[in-house]
Amino acid sequence: MNIQTFYLGSLMTHCYLVWNENREAYLFDCGGENIGRVETFLKTHELTLKYMVLTHGHGDHIGGLNRIKEIFPDVTVYIGKEEEKFLTEPELNLMRYMNGKDFIYDGDYITIKEGDMVGEFEVLDTPGHTIGSKCFYNVKEKMLISGDTMFKRSFGRYDLPTSDGEMLFNSLRKLCTLPEDTKVYSGHSEPTTIGEERAFLTMQGMI
């Protein structure tokens, strides 16, 4: 599979366009409405955006949803069952604190849970940063989309609505059981590997 990073929204969230040999594309998170580069890339490379996949419901990861559905009406949106309210409740998605505007998604979507498959990616429940945070693992490619759960030499905040520190560290322990050469693509850091982060978290006494 191929992967291209786009930095979207006011927080320059790392959003990932991934596509397979059939030219079917996944967009993991959409941090803002400045998605013109994504649209251009898809057209230039003759890709079909089939999956719009959300790691969690914070505004810097869902802020471009309405624009995505406007441009690509046939794309299917996926979000964790526990995160549904984030799509329509500004108090949870926190967009007003990021750019001064409330965000409400008015389109359709499918909810997902542990063990579901979104195309070639397995859904992993990784609560902590939010109650319904999800990671997405492609076993064949040894690729993990980690959202705001695991960063390079760091991890997501757990002082926000629905966050829980104990749950977050349990989720990090869970991710650290994946093969050490698994490549990790997070929402706000450069790529890393499970092996590197397992070593870091162990050294810090966090797992």
Task: Outline the structure in words.
The protein has a 6-stranded mixed β-sheet, covered by helices on one side. Strands 7-8-9-10-13-14 form a 6-stranded mixed β-sheet. Helix content is 24%, strand content 29%. The longest helix has 11 residues, at 165-175. The chain has 207 residues and is α/β, with parallel strands linked by helices. The radius of gyration is 16 Å and the shape is globular. The protein folds into 2 domains: 1-112, Ribonuclease Z/Hydroxyacylglutathione hydrolase-like (Metallo-beta-lactamase, Chain A); 123-206, Ribonuclease Z/Hydroxyacylglutathione hydrolase-like (Metallo-beta-lactamase, Chain A, 4-Layer Sandwich), CATH 3.60.15. It is built from 7 helices and 14 strands. The protein has helices at residues 36-44, 59-62, 65-71, 90-93, 95-99, 165-175, 194-203; strands spanning 2-8, 13-19, 24-28, 48-53, 76-80, 110-112, 117-118, 121-125, 134-138, 143-147, 150-151, 154-155, 183-186, 192-193.
